[in-house]
């Protein structure tokens, strides 16, 4: 009897764990897999980081939700500051341009930053920032582009560079109703 109860518990927990749901009741995408699929090249020589913007999904219909993802890859030992940083370092800022086909549905989110002894909160290695939008019901079919500026201050253990801004661009496609979900489109441009 105990063996059956353990198996039933395992099955119930195992079935629930991967089925996270959004506030709307829709299954939540596997964000770690989606972010991993965005191919950000290593930073160029003498650059502390490289970045790319992408939409998920890359094909949508009017009324659908779409996420803008900005993935940042930092060279070791560089870091950037969190979106909300209480310390003296300059907080990272993401500024998405307006697009008449999109309506913002929330703020930028990121993984929990590392807290440093000096009060700063930082990201190292690879970090992805994400913001939800809704494709307006009035949006017509065709190419959907959104520009986004990433402003950051990169520091290593001995020096902090002045804040810099990189211009990024994400591209998706608006179809009619019943569009297919897919991995992120990728597009990037640097100033």
Write a structural description.
With 191 residues, this protein is mainly beta. The protein has helices at residues 2-16, 31-37; strands spanning 49-56, 59-60, 65-74, 79-81, 93-96, 102-104, 114-115, 121-124, 126-135, 142-152, 154-155, 164-174. The longest helix is centred in the N-terminal third of the chain and has 15 residues, at 2-16. Residues 1-21 and 187-191 have low confidence and may be disordered.
Summarize the model shown.
The chain has two helices and twelve strands. It is mainly beta and 191 residues long. It is elongated.
Radius of gyration: 19 Å
DSSP helix fraction: 10-25%
* Portion in strands: 35-45%
What coarse outline follows from CA principal-axis ratios? elongated
Biggest sheet layout = 4 strands, antiparallel
Task: Please give the count of helices.
Answer: 2
Strands side by side in the biggest sheet: 1-3-9-6
Please state the structural category: mainly beta
Report the order of strands and helices. Answer: HHEEEEEEEEEEEE
* Separation, N- and C-terminal Cα atoms: 66 Å
Return residue spans where pLDDT drops below 50 for at least 5 consecutive residues: 1-21, 187-191
Structure summary, number of beta strands: 12
Mean pLDDT: 84
